[in-house]
C-alpha cells in the first residue's frame, strides 16, 4: 500500500479460452471411451464426449441415450471436463492434478499480460515466454509459494511451513506470436491447480484503505431438540467490497469496461501483491459517484466462485 493511503492497481483479468487447440501439456489425456449409440452402459459407468466432458451413467441398461442431448436429462451426470483441462474450466471446485509437475505451453495468438493461479498445491511456479523471432522474452524464475510464518523469530523457525494457494504473475510483454510455458512443481507429491486464468489485465484506479473481505458459507447447520449443533460442511465463496478512486476523465470508460462482464466470471484485483484482495467471480454491485473535480468514487461488490 502506498504512503498516501491508497492501494495501487485495482482492476480485473478477463480469462482467455484455453483449449486443446492452443495448449499442450504433460498431463495425460483421459482414457475413457467415447459414447457409442450401440453400447449399453451400466450404472456409474463413464464416457467422454468430443468436448472432453466426462459423463456418468445414472441408470443400468443405459442404451441409445446421447448424453449431449437435452432429452436424456437424468440419465447421465455431467462430471466436468477431463483432468488436463480442469484448470481452465471457470470453476474452483475442480482441479488439474499430476504427480510432481504440471507443465503446459499455450500459444494464445493475442496479448497476455497477467496469469492468475488459484487453488495451488505446489512448491513453486515458473512462467516463461518465448517468441519464434526474438527468442526468450520473459522468465519469472521459480516463484516459491511460502506463506508468511508469523511476526516473530520464533514463528519463523518453528511454525509449520505453509504455502500460498494463489499466485499472480504480471508484466508479461505484449507479444501476440509468443508462446507461454508454465511449470507448477510439487516434487515428491501431487501438483494441483484449480484454475489458471490468462489474459490482458484491465486497470481501473486505486483502491482506498478499508476494503471489506468476507465469505459466504454454504454449510448446513441446525440444532437438535436439545440445543446441540449438527453441521455438514459445504462449499464457501469469497465476498469482496472495494472503494475505488478513478480519475474523472475515466468516469464513463470505467462503467463501459465493466458492463460486458456483469454476468461473466473474471479475476478481480483489489491490489497487486495482496492475495486476500484477489477474487475470481462475479461483480454483483456497482455504484459510481463523482466525488470531486477530476475524481469519481466507485463502490464495487464482488462475489467469488464457490470453493
> What's the CATH H-level homologous superfamily of the largest domain?
Galactose-binding domain-like
The domain tally reads 3
The geometry reads as globular
Question: Any idea what the CATH architecture of the largest domain is?
Answer: Sandwich
Kindly report the CATH topology of the largest domain: Jelly Rolls
- Cα(first) to Cα(last) distance is 28 Å
Q: What is Rg?
A: 22 Å
Helix content estimate: under 10%
**Could you give the count of β-strands?**
23
Mean pLDDT rating = 89
Instruction: Walk across the major sheet and give the strand order.
Output: 1-16-20-23-22-21
Content of β-strand: over 45%
Query: How many H/I helical runs?
Result: 2
Structural class: mainly beta
- Runs in which pLDDT lies below 50 for 5 or more consecutive residues are 1-7
CATH C-level category of the largest domain: Mainly Beta
The secondary-structure element order is EEEEEEEEEEEEHEEEEEEEEHEEE
Biggest beta sheet attributes: 6 strands, antiparallel, barrel
Amino acid at each position: 500500500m502506498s504512503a498516501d493511503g491508497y492501494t495501487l492497481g485495482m482492476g480485473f483479468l478477463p480469462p482467455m479460452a484455453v483449449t486443446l487447440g492452443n495448449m499442450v501439456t504433460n498431463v495425460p489425456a483421459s482414457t475413457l471411451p467415447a459414447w457409442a449409440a450401440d453400447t449399453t452402459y451400466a450404472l456409474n459407468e463413464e464416457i467422454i464426449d468430443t468436448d472432453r466432458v466426462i459423463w456418468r451413467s445414472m441408470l443400468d441398461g443405459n442404451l441409445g441415450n446421447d448424453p449431449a442431448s437435452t432429452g436424456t436429462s437424468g440419465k447421465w451426470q455431467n462430471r466436468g471436463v477431463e483432468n488436463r483441462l480442469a484448470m481452465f474450466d471457470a470453476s474452483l471446485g475442480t482441479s488439474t492434478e499430476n504427480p510432481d509437475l504440471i507443465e503446459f505451453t499455450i500459444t494464445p495468438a493475442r496479448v497476455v499480460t497477467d496469469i492468475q493461479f488459484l487453488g495451488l498445491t505446489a512448491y513453486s511456479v515458473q512462467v516463461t515466454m518465448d517468441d519464434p523471432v526474438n527468442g526468450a522474452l520473459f522468465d519469472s524464475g521459480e516463484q516459491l509459494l511460502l506463506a508468511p510464518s508469523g511476526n516473530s523469530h520464533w514463528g519463523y523457525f518453528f511454525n509449520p511451513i505453509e504455502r500460498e494457494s494463489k499466485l499472480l504473475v504480471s508484466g508479461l510483454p505484449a507479444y501476440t506470436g509468443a508462446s507461454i510455458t508454465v511449470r507448477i512443481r510439487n516434487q515428491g507429491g501431487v501438483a494441483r491447480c484449480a484454475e489458471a486464468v490468462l489474459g490482458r489485465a484491465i486497470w481501473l484506479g486505486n483502491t482506498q484503505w478499508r476494503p471489506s473481505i468476507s465469505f459466504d458459507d454454504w454449510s448446513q447447520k441446525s440444532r437438535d431438540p436439545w440445543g446441540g449443533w449438527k453441521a455438514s460442511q459445504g462449499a464457501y465463496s469469497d465476498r469482496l467490497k472495494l472503494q475505488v478512486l478513478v480519475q474523472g476523465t475515466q468516469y464513463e470508460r470505467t462503467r463501459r469496461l465493466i458492463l460486458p462482464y456483469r454476468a461473466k466470471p473474471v479475476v478481480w484485483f483489489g491490489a497487486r501483491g495482496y492475495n486476500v484482495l484477489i477474487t475470481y467471480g462475479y461483480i454483483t454491485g456497482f455504484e459510481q459517484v463523482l466525488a470531486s473535480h477530476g475524481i469519481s468514487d466507485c463502490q464495487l461488490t464482488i462475489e467469488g466462485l464457490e470453493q
